């Protein structure tokens, strides 16, 4: 990358001085987008890319045992790779609480937030950063995020979390976990197998949560909040604030550049399929590419919970899927830590990670 002085100063302030993009908007009255955030034209999100008339499925899970629930979940997982669930039993007030806690964290003074900056965080299990991979990205994303690792087997895993949000994060992990398990069960049963001790660590050995914070952006059409990517884990369950201008988009089909808006629905959880489920299912399920558009008038918080494999899990298409249909594996076997290395070693880049292990 060759950078101008302005770019170096902005990057230095945001990344090296650990202020984040939140620090930048608090410190300066911006009327134009700083150059490190200006996306090349092909990465900007324009309204002609929006596909209308093809809404995201909304699935009522008030009775998990009704056959239509499994049917609709498996159908959505194989088509768009993303759906919303309602009537899942978590009260809207609980969601409001965790979203308020996330806002509470980002409203802390900059020096308080900085204590959690990645690389020097006061917590081993929570850290803050900006964009996605700021040291190697030629253009930055308009987002800061605080990541939490859920390690309930360690009694002190949350001892160092920020007090402004600690309780709410623990509670949210606890509430989301059984719902994730139910959905994974449905998806795995539909592949002619079950979740047991042999695959549990691969399907749900880890849980992580992000507090994503997207400040108001002076020129949103030139920036991106989160660049195009698919989640690499098994399943992500995401809360997004209601009443916020258009934000999350999911790619409608693998081969086209049309995107479907994922509207905030009060109390709903957005569920998206990650790469690991696409690999295990040998493409029965689709990990959906998605991106986040920012806006000029309000900041936005989103809270994904990522459920996924432990680092040493070996990921490959399930024999139950291949044997039943006598089909060839479409992906080569990979250890999850190598998969992570590939994903985190580059900027957000669509579905390049899963493509890297696709067999010819
Ligand atoms: O902010 C959102 O709605 C989605 C964020 C996202 O895709 C991620 O954190 O992986
Ligand atoms: Fe994502």
Automatic annotation (TrEMBL):
UniProt KW keywords: Dioxygenase, Iron, Metal-binding, Oxidoreductase
Pfam families, alphabetized: 2OG-FeII_Oxy, DIOX_N
Co-factor requirement: L-ascorbate
Domain Fe2OG dioxygenase: 205-309
PROSITE patterns, per database record: FE2OG_OXY (PS51471)
PANTHER family given in the database record: OXOGLUTARATE/IRON-DEPENDENT DIOXYGENASE
Protein name in the entry: Non-hem dioxygenase N-terminal domain
Organism in which the protein naturally occurs: Arabidopsis thaliana x Arabidopsis arenosa
């Amino acid at each position: 990358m060759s950078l101008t002085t302005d770019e170096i100063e902005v990057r230095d302030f945001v990344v090296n001085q650990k202020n984040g993009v939140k620090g930048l908007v608090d410190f300066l009255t911006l009327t134009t987008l700083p150059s490190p955030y200006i996306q090349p034209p092909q990465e900007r999100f324009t309204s002609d890319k929006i596909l209308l008339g093809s809404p995201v499925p909304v699935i009522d899970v008030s009775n998990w045992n009704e056959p239509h629930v499994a049917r609709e979940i498996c159908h959505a997982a194989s088509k768009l790779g993303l759906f919303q669930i309602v009537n899942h039993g978590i009260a809207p007030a609980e969601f409001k609480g965790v979203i308020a806690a996330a806002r509470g964290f980002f409203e802390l003074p900059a020096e308080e937030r900085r204590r959690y900056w990645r690389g020097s965080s006061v917590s081993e299990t929570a850290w803050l950063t900006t964009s996605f991979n700021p040291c190697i990205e030629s253009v930055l994303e308009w987002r800061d995020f605080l990541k939490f690792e859920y390690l309930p087997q360690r009694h002190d895993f949350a001892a160092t979390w920020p007090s402004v949000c600690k309780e709410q994060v623990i509670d949210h992990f606890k509430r989301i976990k059984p719902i994730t398990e139910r959905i994974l069960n449905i998806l795995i049963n539909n592949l002619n197998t079950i979740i047991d001790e042999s695959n549990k660590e691969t399907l749900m050995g880890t849980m992580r949560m992000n507090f994503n914070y997207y400040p108001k952006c002076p020129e949103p059409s030139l920036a991106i909040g989160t660049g195009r990517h698919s989640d690499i884990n098994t399943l992500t369950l995401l809360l997004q604030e209601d009443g916020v201008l258009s934000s999350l988009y999911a790619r409608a089909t693998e081969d086209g550049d049309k995107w479907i808006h994922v509207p905030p629905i009060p109390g709903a959880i957005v569920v998206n399929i990650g790469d690991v489920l696409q690999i295990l299912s040998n493409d029965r399920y689709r990990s959906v590419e998605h991106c986040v558009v920012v806006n000029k008038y309000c900041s936005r918080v989103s809270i994904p919970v990522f459920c996924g494999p432990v680092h040493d899990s070996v990921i490959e298409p399930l024999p139950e899927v291949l044997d039943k249909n006598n089909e060839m594996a479409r992906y080569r076997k990979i250890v999850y830590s190598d998969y992570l290395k590939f994903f985190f070693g580059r900027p957000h880049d669509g579905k390049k990670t899963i493509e890297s292990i696709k067999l010819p």
